Amino acid sequence: MNLENNNLGMSDNFRRMNMKRISNIDQSKVLHVTLQPGEYLEKFVTTAKTIFYVHEGEGYVLINEDKIPFNRDRFFDCDSDSVCQFCNNGQCVLSFFIIQVEE
Fold first, then answer.
1. CB 46: neighbour CB atoms within 10 A?
2. Which residues of the chain have pLDDT under 50?
3. Is 7 helix (H, G, I), strand (E, B) or coil?
């Protein structure tokens, strides 16, 4: 998953989301993503080991076709080359962090 925008290399899917890059240190990247109720990220493929932390809200994540419902304070991880998709099917804002670690 390319987590960067324009000169950072982000896809159109990520450009439309409310996303802030928090850190880009050595081989890791940390982003904060906000999805409004009914919004979702289109499926994307991770390019490195990736950790997701749900700060607030509820919804579900698809990781390689496994549907995992979640609410706040939940961690998920996936290996490189995993297909992922986040969906906010709740009534409030979904806020989560993406932590990508290059090996």
1. 21
2. 1-15
3. helix
Beta bridge partners of 59: 70
Question: Which tokens in the block code for residue 36?
Answer: 């409004």
What CATH class has 6-101? Answer: mainly beta
C-alpha triplet 100, 77, 83: angle, nearest 5°: 85
Nearest to 14 by CA among 28, 3, 29: 3
| pLDDT reported for residue 102 | 76
Cα separations in angstroms, 8 against 1, 4, 56? 12, 4, 26
Q: Are 88 and 38 in contact (CB under 8 A)?
A: yes
pLDDT in tens, 68-88: 999 999 998 999 999 999 999
b/e 20-45 (16+ beta carbons within 10 angstroms → b) = eeeeeeeeebbbebbbeeebbbeebe
